[in-house]
Amino acid sequence: MTTTLEKTFSPPRKPRVAVTPALRKKGRQARALVLPALIFSIVITQIPFLVTIYFSLLNWNQLRPSEIKFAWFDNYKVVFTGPDFLPSLISTVIITGSSVVLSLLLGLFFAILLDRKFFGQGLARTLMITPFLVMPAAAALIWKWSLLDVNVGMINFALKLFGVPAVAWNTDFPVLTIIMMLTWQYTPFMMLILLAGLQSQSREVLEAASVDGAGPWRTFQFMTLPHLRQYIEIATLLGSIMLLQAFDPIAIMTKGTGGSKTLSYLLYERAFIGLDVGQAAAFGVVTVVVTIAVASIALRTLFKVFIDGGER
Amino acid sequence: MLVRKRFLAMGAGLAITGLALSGCAGAGSTSSAAKSVTLTLATVNNPQMKDMEQLKGSFEKDNPGVKVNFVQMEEGDLRAAVTADVASGAGQYDVVTVGAYEVPQWGAQGWLTDLTDNLKADKSYDVGDILQPVRDALSSGGKQYAVPFYGESSILMYNKEMFAKAGLTMSDHPTWQEVAAAAKVLNTPEHAGICLRGKPGWGDLFAPLTTVVQTFGGAWYDENWKAQVNAPPFVEGVQFYVDLLKAAGEKDPVSNSFTECLNQLQSGKVAMWYDASVAASILEDPKTSAVAGKMGYVHAPVYKTKESGWLWSWNLAVPKTSKNADAAVKFVKWATSKDYQQLVGKTLGWTRVPPGARTSTYSIPEYKTAAAAFAPITLDVMNSVNPKQPGLNPQPWVGIQYVTIPEFQDVGNQVAQLVADAIAGRTTVKEALDKGQVIAQAAGDKQKK
Predict the structure, then answer these.
(1) What are the φ/ψ torsions at residue B36 (nearest 5 degrees)?
(2) Stated pTM of the model
(3) Contact map slice: B 393-432 vs A, CB within 8 A
(4) Which domains does chain B possess?
(5) C-alpha closest to that of A178 among A289, A83, A103
(6) Is the confidence metric ipTM above 0.90 for this complex?
(7) Do the Cβ atoms of A171 and B88 come within 8 Å?
(8) Domain formed by A73-304, architecture
(9) Domain limits of chain A?
């Protein structure tokens, strides 16, 4: 049905315009106007990246400044043969993956609830968004001291009410702790995007579905979910990008123990505790390459599920 | 990935802004004679440093035009931030708090301003009053690169009320076995037997743990820089620590370091605590501590050595990169002077005077009365520890709970993470230390060259 609709309403193709000198001038002008922004973005993104690649070929430990020299691929050897990279990659996949999926599911749930009209909707919406507005470092401290503390934390207090003994979160469940906090923080983000999607859905289509005798679940499955596909994709993509960089809760709560050492924390450790600029840069470069590869493959396979007959 | 890119981009951006700003400053400074200086001080967020921040107004009043801006961080973060800043020559900080571990290394690298002559020339400062062992630790090649703000050793602190209730006594020089036995008796649902640091980090978990390892006969390295991390005495020491934590330690140890344990002790959640002696002065402050007057303090527990306390000082130093070195040195001297101690005593209370830096501190009458519970033992322990050979065997570096090689913070950190896994029961102590051995040996090999 959607395909026919799209075909009917698709705009007519523009006729090919002959390139006149005036048009060419206009094009040059447009390019000239874009140029500063383009140069700026190249300067602040691509040059540092090239410098990072150069650094990654150096033997450069900040504590031994007299021994800086070109070392070719020594640092990459450490990355691929050392014990740090693979476990860290796995931790990153587990932590990012589960946080994205969980916050997406919870975000969808809350978005559906908030899509309905009820008294105090605005207030509820603001309150739901709050976790995303708290600074990550502050949020991690709140979690550490107020929520998860084994003696005075609220979560352990609540567990005690049900007769469950206090849980030593950071010691016994470091990965779960990080996932919990990240999910808490990113659910509002997912919710906002999905809520926008839900509100852009045409009421008439939903009415038509109910006239045709579709129940709420079938309406959701066949009308709402396909409509939300693009929103889910963008939420997953943006969420993954942001969650890949998650650093604060790890630095503040678990210090990278028990499988919570993600790539971003590993990078921090190599650069600021190991003070090994060369090695940190090599880890950075490999991380970029792996992330781009994994992201493009994962995104494509993942979204085949949603794409009907290969058409977007 | 993006973090790295963004970090570098930010660095480039900052560098450009920095250039622009320094250009402006250069042009401006010729015209304005009465210059106002803002000193940026990077420091640990320990209570004594917070006191310093509270009292900085007095310095600013005496030195018009000078403002002091405090940047407080957790111990591990501070170390990382300051090292990166000093090593890269960024010059973000004018005064830095540097641990005893780094001062000789950084001094030798030429990163810190040499204070020797300036301190000697100033009669009223009386540099000879600073505790000799601490001064030795802060010097390299006969030059003093920093002054101690406060010094500390490690002692065992215990709640006398809880001990009396359980019918236990504590000797002045307890052994670890005695402490473990007492901790098991005192471990109840209301309070844990003992609080021990478990937060991964060489300055967190491994400060107390290294002293335990040493008194069990272990060491990080032997005389030839061969790593000893999975040798039997090291394993035995760590196993003892982990077992004690499991049997009678505080809950969720991986979250805990100095500040967290201090909180738990102050609120009566634990009966004993083995940590920095400087904690005693905070525990005895009746304004903030519920256990003031109820605490007992004894020497660090031992097993095979006679003494097991560590030696540490937090020091103030001026990086070579500081653009306001004169004012910075002035501030450093002010904060470590005899007058500052009087100022703290009179405005904040005598128990809060920074201890373990000056001999004269221990002869101030008001301090002697106010700190009667812990002043004598602090001085006693600090004079009886031996940083040249803290364990059973000779070692090729000076230092107790750390190894003065640049790689140690990295090694200590990684091994601490492995031990934290053992504390949580995800791996055995032996497995963790076998991995640690490889990490430590790689750093040891670099010393052999």
Answers:
(1) -105, 135
(2) 0.79
(3) 406-407, 409-410, 413, 417, 420-421, 423-426
(4) 38-152+312-370 (3.40.190.10), 154-309+388-448 (3.40.190.10)
(5) A103
(6) no
(7) no
(8) Orthogonal Bundle (1.10)
(9) 14-55, 73-304
